[in-house]
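Record type: ASSEMBLY
Status: queued
Input:
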Amino acid sequence: MLSHEFIRNAYLAGTFIALACGVVGWFTVLRGQVFAGDALSHVAFVGAIAAAVIGVDERVGLFVLTLGLAAVMAGLGARAQANDVTIGVVFSWVLGIGVLLIAVLSTSSSGGNGLIVANTLFGSIFGLGAPQGIAAAAIGLGAVLAALAIARPLLYASLDPELAGLHGVPVRALGLALALLIGIVTAEGTQAIGALLVLGLIAAPGGAALALTSKPYLGMTLSAAIALAAMWGGIALSYAIPSLPPSTAIIALAVGAYALASVSTIAL
Amino acid sequence: MGNPTLSWNLVSDVHRLLEYQFMVNALQAGTIVAVMAGVVGWYMVLRRQSFAGHTIAVMAFPGASGAALAGLPTALGYYLACGIAALTIGRAGGAAGRGRSGESATIGVVQVAGLAAGFLFLSLYSGVLEQLETLLFGTFLGIDSNQVLTLLVIAVVVLGVLALVGRPLLLASLDPELARARGVPVGALDIGFLLVLSLAVAATSQITGALLVFALLVAPAAAAQALTPRPGLSLVLSVAFALLVTWVGLGISYFSIYPLGFFVTSLAFGLYVLAQLVRRLVL
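Status: finished
Output:
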């Protein structure tokens, strides 16, 4: 299996994307910000379409839009956490602009449009080239290190914002930093498993880890491990069963882990 | 339909709009959906269940692709998938009881599980791909009178149920503890509302597409609630805003080459921003 170059690229990019999703996802679930992550991942789709319309690299569109929206949503909410109505109104408008861009794209270019839409929505981890794989790995590693660097104060600010604020912890800045990290992770994950499915690698491992343990660092590690296992297992499964898309296989494993963790906590 | 252009005579514009049967159907369907979305969305915003609403909405995708694969009618797939998602979210939310963070993770996981299944159905049945954009972003072309009738029946059911449980549901949404103390079945209302929401969302997504239902479900209700704290008045405003967004959106997109989804979401967003400005500056 590993003799194919596209599989090696998929594993290289997938490993670090999964680690980043796992660690950032743990904080996302802890703070109840899964909807914000969901909005950012859908908006990533619009970023990719916009890049295709303007004619720049897809990644430029992905990162500009997700980071921009993360900052906007952080700016609109108390403690840099927008409420669900603000998130819903803003992201449905951005998606509306996406619809306009799809129309512009389909009138200006011939064909290929449907493929861009499908690839962006559901990802194509087997379609990543070597440079994309290396870039994805570097960005994923960077996101993990950044999350670990702010883990202690962020944990404090998340669990008890009032007390943390009194102790001089920059609660708002940390909220913004996490929002930006979610933006980076979704933009990166969109290329691999798609704008509609990247949420699975953020919510499911984090949710499973939080269901199993309340110890923060153990939880973060567990979350990253679950995301990694889903990614590795999903790629292998999809390679073994060609009719199973890799994104579906990865998400199925992550969702399975979450279901198992939830059932085991109810049973215990 | 040639190339319609907008003139300064509004009466003749409206007259030309209604010349075509498809446009009459679209306006009828849009009106029904807007009234339903205005009311159901008002409760959804009040109950802070936008994420659940969005998740139920995107279930239209696995619903439609699953129905295509199984050879069932698309609309049936919509309603089944949305209903199953609503029950899963309701049951899991009640069972887990791990507070807000656990709930948001559960909803997110339900959403991606549905979408991943939809993607699998889509790749097993390659025929639907041409409709993917329509499914996600909506259309107002090709709505026949049967669909209008179905939407009407659903709207009557949804609004009828809400008329019956509206008052206890309001109390249960605003103050669950007090409602429980007064003997209101809060748990049953929670599940019941999610089911009503799933019906409304499945119907709305046939006009706006699965990804854009919020244009009618969240923005009008949020704008109305920003303007007045009185429940009755803001409910009426919410319906009025939803109707305004739908009618103006349909009107503009008839005269434009660009898609309905863009106009509807932009109008809804503009309305919401305007309401927030009015609230801060005037009220």
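Annotation: The mean pLDDT of chain B is 84.
Annotation: DSSP finds 14 helices and no strands in chain B.
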